[in-house]
Amino acid sequence: MAKVYVFDHPLIQHKLTYIRDKATGTKEFRELVDEVATLMAFEITRDMPLEETEIDTPVSRTKSKILAGKKMGIIPILRAGIGMVDGILKLIPAAKVGHIGLYRDPETLKPIEYYVKLPSDVEERDFIVVDPMLATGGSAVEAINSLKKRGGKHIKFMCLVAAPEGVKALQEAHPDVDIYIAALDEKLNDHGYIVPGLGDAGDRLFGTK
Ligand code: URA
């Protein structure tokens, strides 16, 4: 079963409070999401493999650690996932960025894929699929289906706020995909919004309505 990690670092929790606050405007919201994405990237990369190298410091020769060069990919789910990409790239600048776009079929309410563009070497990369909100879990499950269908194997899912319903759906559909969140909220309301949540993440990021 997939593990769920809640990042309760004080800086993440502090910034998340302002992200949630409806008085926070678009510019600040965007900056805060970017900052939290960087902080979450710091935590999510804890298990990156290291290897030993030898260097000369000004004082002596020494063995020291560097990243083993594992190739990474970041996949934002369009459109709100885009708001987290730059923040992650600050820490893993060599990562490739793919995109997965989904819309909800008005009749079946199921997410339908309308855009997929992934790095060509999908099978060699470790992926972080990102979306600020994990609500019903429908989009996350479908985006990861898309990625797996094209060869993606090592996948993590990262979001700011999750509902218990979304966590359960994602765990059931993808027991191999660990979930990294900044907060686990109470529930979904009748309109599919997370409560207390932060509203519509895409609209708040891009200033639309
Ligand atoms: N998507 C959002 O942007 N907000 C929610 O609360 C749920 C889904």
TrEMBL record:
According to its UniProt entry, the protein's GO biological process terms are:
UMP salvage; uracil salvage
Which sites bind 5-phospho-alpha-D-ribose 1-diphosphate? 79, 104, 131-139, 200
Output the Gene Ontology cellular-component terms: cytoplasm
Q: Which residue intervals define the domain Phosphoribosyltransferase in the entry?
A: 6-208
Query: What Gene3D superfamilies does the database record attribute to this sequence?
Result: 3.40.50.2020
Picking any one GO molecular function of the record gives:
GTP binding
Q: What detail does the entry give on cofactor binding?
A: Binds 1 Mg(2+) ion per subunit. The magnesium is bound as Mg-PRPP.
Q: Which Pfam families match?
A: UPRTase
* Regulation (activators, inhibitors): Allosterically activated by GTP.
Q: What class of enzyme is it?
A: transferase
Q: Which Enzyme Commission numbers does its entry carry?
A: 2.4.2.9
Q: Which residues bind uracil?
A: 194, 199-201
Q: Which InterPro entries match?
A: PRTase-like, PRTase_dom, Upp_B, UPRT, UPRTase/APRTase
Catalytic activity entry? UMP + diphosphate = 5-phospho-alpha-D-ribose 1-diphosphate + uracil
Q: Does the keyword Coiled coil apply?
A: no
Cofactor list: Mg(2+)
UniProt pathway annotation: Pyrimidine metabolism; UMP biosynthesis via salvage pathway; UMP from uracil: step 1/1
Keywords, A to Z, come to:
Allosteric enzyme, Glycosyltransferase, GTP-binding, Magnesium, Nucleotide-binding, Transferase
Per the record, the similarity remark reads:
Belongs to the UPRTase family.
Q: What does this protein do?
A: Catalyzes the conversion of uracil and 5-phospho-alpha-D-ribose 1-diphosphate (PRPP) to UMP and diphosphate.
User: What's this protein's name?
Assistant: Uracil phosphoribosyltransferase
Species per Swiss-Prot/TrEMBL record:
Cytobacillus solani
Primary gene name: upp
